[in-house]
Design brief:
The protein is of the alpha+beta class. It contains 13 helices and 15 strands. The termini are far apart.
């Protein structure tokens, strides 16, 4: 009888122990599930905070502070909630930064052509294949790849024959390998993860140096977008349809300057970037060809001074200058003629910021923001002299409000109009698309969740372009 009692007690104890273990496991699973939910919503709170800040600055722009929004995003990149916290950061140019990644800090692959050959590990056949992927025809270049190339290799896809929609699409192009595009950033979240900083212990192979080599993804993007909005928050003024009064109101030019600018806008292939190298009086007279450009170079590379003077152009290096804004004449091509006052750098900057000669129909590939661009992009993609890049970055970073116009780059030692002008079609001073890598953490068990969200703030409400949870 005693044995039966002992046996029953033993069986009962085993059952109770099993129930306890099962209950403990269920409790742990429940706690983990709650922690994941808390972490996910904490990450979501970070995303919503960033979007709210972007929308505020879209609605309340400050053209005199090009970095105001960037500072606000950085200042709110970490937040504590009742049940968790969020942390938003990214790697760029070998350094970790607080806040979301500015897609305009990288070069848009849809705008690059010859510059592609400057990029490490980029070969002529890959450049040809990229070009063929983007162009609208089915004619393969000398080293390119069109539809038949992919079909002959059993691929289930073919070239888009249009712009790349996202960076990962680049890996579909013939000759492109993920090791080149992703480097150590295998999940393309723009931040360093534990498996991306442990050497050869786990995939991918990395240097375990506390830095993130993101490969091409660190310098190229397909997500930056153009916008009709000027830094003032107003739609850019189309000089093809604008009146002189509108130009004066938006840019602060004099009436003769506004009239000259409108006259130049009506000339074939008018590009406002030419203001950086050619005096307005030359452009408006229709003589901004090789002679005008050469004259501007002969005048020391600057078309004006801060006092509104117009320099001698077209072969007269020692001639006199006149104040043409007051109705007097400037020396152009060796002959004296009446003309409007040429623009100083501040006026050029306002024109470049607020005006356009192209009708905006839809968003296209975005330009590089000179205020956030990495030194790696300037050196590797645009092949700028490293010393010149270092000077630009140090002077830019020393300005709390950043560079408020492209023309203000001319105030940086070493940057002549001849250096800046070819880059002007690729550069700007504002950004519209950001990628938010928000990592949420639960306060209870310490569970983590990450969201990677790409947002276009050029419209209200802001538009989410991409959303993933790596």
């Amino acid at each position: 009888m005693l044995l039966i009692v002992i046996w029953a007690v033993t069986i009962g104890a085993a059952i109770v122990a099993g129930i306890q273990i099962s209950s403990f496991r269920q409790s742990m699973l429940g706690s983990d599930a709650i922690a994941r939910v808390q972490a996910r919503w904490a990450a979501r709170a970070g995303v919503e905070t960033m979007i709210a800040i972007m929308e505020y600055h879209t609605e309340n722009p400050d053209p005199e502070d090009a970095l105001g929004m960037i500072r606000d995003l950085q200042d709110n990149s970490y937040g504590e909630l009742e049940t968790g916290s969020y942390d938003i950061r990214h790697f760029l140019d070998g350094q970790e930064w607080a806040g979301p990644l500015d897609e305009h800090s990288k070069a848009n692959i849809n705008l690059l052509s010859g510059e592609l050959m400057n990029i490490r590990d980029m070969t002529p056949d890959v450049v040809g294949a990229i070009t063929d992927w983007r162009d609208s025809n089915e004619d393969a270049g000398m080293l390119g790849a069109e539809k038949s190339h992919y079909q002959n290799r059993g691929k289930s896809y073919e070239p888009r024959n249009a712009d790349f929609r996202n960076f990962a699409e680049l890996e579909l192009v013939a000759g492109v390998w993920p090791e080149y595009t992703r480097g150590e950033d295998w999940n393309l979240d723009g931040r360093i993860d534990s498996n991306e900083d442990d050497g050869d212990q786990t995939w991918p192979d990395d240097q375990a140096d506390g830095m993130l080599d993101a490969g091409w993804s660190g310098i190229l993007t397909a997500l930056s977008r153009s916008s009709a909005l000027a830094p003032s928050g107003l739609p850019r003024l189309n000089l093809l349809t604008a009146t002189s009064e509108e130009v004066i109101e938006r840019t602060g030019l004099t009436a003769p300057q506004a009239s000259a600018l409108l006259a130049y806008a009506q000339t074939p292939n008018a590009k406002l970037e030419q203001l950086l190298t050619v005096p307005l009086s030359t452009l408006s007279s229709g003589s901004a060809g090789a002679g005008g450009a050469a004259g501007a170079a002969g005048a020391g590379g600057r078309s004006s001074t801060g006092g509104g003077k117009s320099g001698s152009t077209g072969g007269s290096t020692g001639g006199s200058t006149g104040r043409s804004s007051g109705g007097r004449s400037g020396a152009t091509g060796g002959a004296t003629q009446a003309g409007p006052g040429d623009l100083d750098n501040a006026a050029k900057g306002r024109v470049l910021n607020e005006c356009t000669t192209v009708e905006f129909k839809r968003a296209g590939p975005g330009k590089v923001n000179i205020n956030t661009v990495s030194g790696e992009v300037l050196r590797e993609v645009f092949d700028l002299n490293p010393k010149l890049v270092d000077t630009l970055l140090s002077r830019r970073d020393a300005k709390p409000s950043g560079l408020t116009s492209l023309a203000s780059v001319l105030d940086i030692p070493g940057f002549t109009p001849q250096i800046l002008s070819p880059l002007a079609k690729q550069l700007d001073v504002q950004s519209f698309v950001f990628t938010i890598s928000s990592r949420g953490r639960s306060k209870t068990v310490g569970g983590e969740s990450e969201m990677v969200v790409t947002v276009d703030r050029s419209m209200l409400p802001a538009q989410i372009l991409l959303y993933r949870e790596p």
